[in-house]
Amino acid sequence: MVATGGKQKARAWAPLFALVLAAGLAGCEVADDVGVPGPDAAPSARSAAPRPPVPTQDAELAAQTAKSMTEVQRLLGAPPKSELMSALGGTGFRQTRPSMAKGAYLLKVACVGTPSVLLTVSQPDRRNGTRLELPVTCGRGVQAAVKLESGPTTVQLSPNTTDPDPGAAAGYRLERSPSA
Hints:
Layout: H1 6-26, H2 59-76, E1 83-89, E2 93-100, E3 103-112, E4 116-122, E5 130-137, E6 141-148, E7 151-159, E8 169-176
Antiparallel strand pairs: 1-8, 2-7, 3-6, 3-8, 4-5, 4-7
């Protein structure tokens, strides 16, 4: 094919091919800032779905919970200067302190709005790691002495019912024993 003038035909078609290619690309726009919308850009058709509304607490339940927490604070009394751990909240929670010194401690616990709770003090890295299990009847403050070894200590409050009142509250304070 080259011998019969193939190069001449290819040279003749090249400008026509370039012209068709240029006309096809003439309608394309090349932007330097790809991905950055301009000031007149319309919002994306794939916008994120609206967020669900934040759940709100019933005003009556919130008032009952606040009243229960205030009562628990009253039953526990003022926080002492020697307080090492404390918590106040619903009737089921756990708190861990990574390092506790060996010694005698005083524990105060109170609950309101449920019949009773179970307080557990444990040191999981020790043999027979549970140091105290104390069932507490709600509506009054209870004190108990506990001896702890050095190491991590966990205090847990659990309701003694399968259906605790949502407005119930419980709390505890752990402090060095005044006699220690």
